[in-house]
Design brief:
Largest sheet: 4 strands, mixed
Shape: globular
GO biological process, one term: transcription initiation at RNA polymerase III promoter
Strand content: 5-15%
Number of strands: 8
Structural class: alpha/beta
Number of helices: 10
InterPro entries: TF_IIIC_su-5_HTH (IPR019136), TF_IIIC_Tfc1/Sfc1 (IPR040454)
GO molecular function, one term: RNA polymerase III type 1 promoter sequence-specific DNA binding
Organism: Chrysolophus pictus (Golden pheasant)
Helix content: 25-40%
GO cellular component, one term: transcription factor TFIIIC complex
Radius of gyration: 22 Å
C-alpha cells in the first residue's frame, strides 16, 4: 500500500526501449498450423508505401521467386532482388510466413506451403554453419581471413536502452524514394543498388564464407559431395522431425564436418605457415603471431569485398528483432 511506480527514465527502465514495429509478420513454430494468407494489416502497410512502378515491379519479382522456390532466406532474397531493406520488411509478410523453430527456422515460407508434408522440401532446410577455429584446427580466431562482424565486447541487442540512434526511415521517406542520407553522387543503378553478393547465401568449394556464422539452405550448398550427403535417403523419407527434417539423422553434422575441412584446406593453401610443424609450442605461438601480423593488410583488403549487414552475427536473432 502506498507504493507508486517511479517515473520512467533511461536510468530505471528495464525492458523494451522502443515501440513494437507494426510489420505484421506471422511467426510459425514447427508444430503450428500453416497460415494460408497474410494479415490484413500487412497488406495495408505495404499498400501505403507501394506508390510507384518500381515498388510494384519488386512485388512481382518477389512473387515469382516464391513461385519458383517456396522457401527463401532474407539474404537470398536480397541477393536476387534490389529492394530497399525497409521496404522488404513490409513486403515479405504479405507473401510469406516466418518459421522460428525446426529445420526451416529463420526462413520465409510461401503462404499455404507446408514443408513438413513434402519430402522434397528437405533441400530448403537450413544449416547453421560456423567456421571452426582454435589451435586444434591449426589457426586462432585472429589468424582467420574471415573476421567477425563485431567484437563480443562491443555488442548490444537492438532493444538496449542506450543503443546509438540510427536513421529512422518513415513512411514518407519510403514513398518519396529509396535514397539514403549522405549518398554519394555516383549512385549504383537502381537494378543493383541494394543487391547483396551471391556469397551471402551460396556456399561454393574454394571460396570462404563472408562471415564466421552463416545460415545456408541445403540447396545453396553448391558442392557435389555435399549434395550427395543431403540426398542419401531420397525416396525413403518416412518422417519429418524437428531436428533433422526429412534428412537422415546427423546429416547437418556431416555437412559441417565436410565444409570445415574445405575451409581448412583453403586457409592452408593461402597461409601454409599456419600449419607448418614447429619444434616447440613457443615457436608455434611466435610463428602464428608473425603470420597474423604479416597478413594484416591482406585481411583488410579481403574484408573490403564484404559489407556486413546491420545487426548481430546471429541473422535469425536480428531478423526476429526487426519485427518485434
Amino acid at each position: 500500500d502506498g507504493y507508486n511506480n517511479p517515473q520512467v527514465s533511461a536510468e530505471n527502465l528495464i525492458g523494451l526501449s522502443r515501440a513494437r514495429r507494426p510489420n505484421n509478420a506471422i511467426f510459425v513454430n514447427f508444430d503450428d498450423e500453416v497460415p494460408t494468407k497474410p494479415l490484413d494489416a500487412a497488406a495495408q502497410a505495404w499498400k501505403k508505401v507501394c506508390t510507384n512502378p518500381v515498388d510494384r515491379k519488386v512485388e512481382e519479382e518477389l512473387r515469382k521467386l516464391f513461385e519458383v522456390r517456396p522457401v527463401w532466406s532474407r539474404n537470398a532474397v536480397k541477393a536476387n532482388i534490389s529492394v530497399h531493406p525497409d521496404k522488404l520488411k513490409l513486403l515479405l509478410p504479405c507473401l510469406a510466413y516466418y518459421m522460428i523453430t525446426g529445420p526451416w527456422r529463420s526462413l520465409w515460407v510461401r503462404f499455404g506451403y507446408d514443408p513438413r508434408k513434402h519430402p522434397e522440401a528437405k533441400i530448403y532446410q537450413v544449416l547453421d554453419f560456423r567456421i571452426r577455429c582454435g589451435m586444434k584446427y591449426g589457426y586462432t580466431p585472429n589468424d582467420m581471413p574471415v573476421k567477425a562482424k563485431r567484437s563480443t565486447y562491443n555488442y548490444s541487442l537492438p532493444i538496449t536502452v542506450k543503443k546509438p540512434v540510427s536513421h529512422t526511415v518513415s513512411v514518407h521517406d519510403l514513398k518519396q524514394g529509396l535514397g539514403t542520407p549522405g549518398a554519394s553522387g555516383a549512385k549504383k543503378p537502381a537494378s543493383s543498388r541494394y543487391k547483396l553478393k551471391e556469397s551471402v547465401y551460396v556456399f561454393r568449394e574454394g571460396a570462404l564464407p563472408p562471415y564466421r556464422q552463416m545460415f545456408y539452405q541445403l540447396c545453396d550448398l553448391n558442392v557435389e559431395s555435399l549434395q550427395k550427403i543431403i540426398h542419401r535417403n531420397d525416396g525413403t523419407e518416412s518422417e519429418c522431425t524437428e531436428r533433422d527434417g526429412w534428412c537422415l539423422p546427423k546429416t547437418s553434422d556431416d555437412l559441417r564436418d565436410s565444409m570445415s575441412l574445405m575451409i581448412k584446406q583453403i586457409i592452408r593453401s593461402t597461409r601454409p605457415a599456419l600449419f607448418s610443424s614447429t619444434t616447440s609450442s613457443e615457436d608455434g605461438k611466435e610463428q602464428l603471431a608473425y603470420e597474423s601480423g604479416e597478413d594484416e593488410d591482406d585481411e583488410e583488403e579481403e574484408e573490403e569485398d564484404f559489407k556486413p549487414s546491420d545487426g548481430s552475427e546471429n541473422e535469425m536473432e536480428t531478423e526476429i528483432l526487426d519485427y518485434v
